[in-house]
Amino acid sequence: MKTSDFDYNLPEERIAQEPWPVRDECKMLVMDRATGALEDRIFRDIADYLHPGDVLVANETRVLPARLLGTKRGTGGAAEVFLLREVLGRENHTAHSAVWEVLVRPGKRLKPGAIVDFTGTPKIPSEDADPSDALSAHAAPALSVEILDFAPSGKGERIARLTTPLSSLDEALHAVGHTPLPPYIHDYAGDEEMYQTVYAQRETSAAAPTAGLHFTPELIARIQEMGVVWKTVELQVGIDTFRIVEEEDPANHAMHTDTYTVGQDVVDACDAAHAAGKRVVAVGTTSVRSLESAWDTQQGKLVARDNAHTSLFLVPGSTFHVVDGLITNFHVPRSTLMMLVSAFSTRDNVMAAYTHALDAGYRFLSFGDCMFIH
Length: 374
Known about the structure:
Layout: E1 27-31, E2 38-42, E3 55-59, E4 62-63, E5 67-72, E6 78-86, E7 97-105, E8 115-118, E9 143-150, E10 158-163, H1 169-176, E11 177-178, E12 203-205, H2 217-225, E13 229-235, E14 258-262, H3 264-275, E15 280-283, H4 285-293, E16 295-296, E17 301-302, E18 305-310, E19 325-329, H5 336-344, H6 347-359, E20 370-373
Parallel strand pairs: 1-20, 3-13, 3-15, 4-12, 15-19
Antiparallel strand pairs: 1-2, 5-6, 5-8, 5-11, 6-7, 7-10, 8-9, 9-10, 13-14, 14-18, 16-17, 19-20
């Protein structure tokens, strides 16, 4: 197996630059995971492929306003900070201060000791509000980021301390931050909520679990009325999900680590479905990694996990213990996600499906169309 086995030509114009106006009207390519047989449908037809007692498991994480645009203190030069993950084990974390691993730009000018200030968009306070609560371009920074050190990864990340004079870092991030979009989406000026799932909960991710973007509240209610069980897990999605595998031998690839939670209610629902001969369908690759990471090989069963860490790398030849069906978008060439979906079916089936999708006008990547593999 080589990384090049999961490469394909993705024309720039096939990368979706905006979402479908109506989430569940996107195209859906249905594939039989055993035979590779294909059907062209639209997403709301997913109900035709689900049965009472099946369990749908989705990742309920919400995307942080992690993209920060500010100015370097002392020079006034434009600077960008992208929040990746909060650093655990650091002392003195408070509501007003925390340490994060971040990406910065321009990297050459943001070395340890540099400070970047972020001031919120001017706000007009309500009549009963204290005027000093309003943020303005001339006020003290709503958020400051001090670069402490280079991150140990050696890939250009930094360790930085975030501080705010506001009531909390959460308030500060919502005052100055922007929802980050993948690097292959350019100049999108639409509703940022379209890059959030309708069932998103806690803001813990730097990227969206995009397979879930196609669901509407009405569609979820409809499939639940059919007797399909809806459950959620949480996996904190990082920007590593967009990175291609550089090594030609996937065995040499250092898989990124994610934090995930699988509740006991999810375990019980999956166990009940399998006991009744029903299926567990994962909404997205992050749900797959959560469920399969929660499988205890020694006990031979699915177990609950709370803020656990996983570096699970699923490639052809891997065993799936929990997941029987997969809703997923079309992925970046040479990525770990291409390997995961190939593992769930076969490499030949997936590559043939991608060829069909390109020929049939499907839109690719985060804002694009999707597949249902069953």
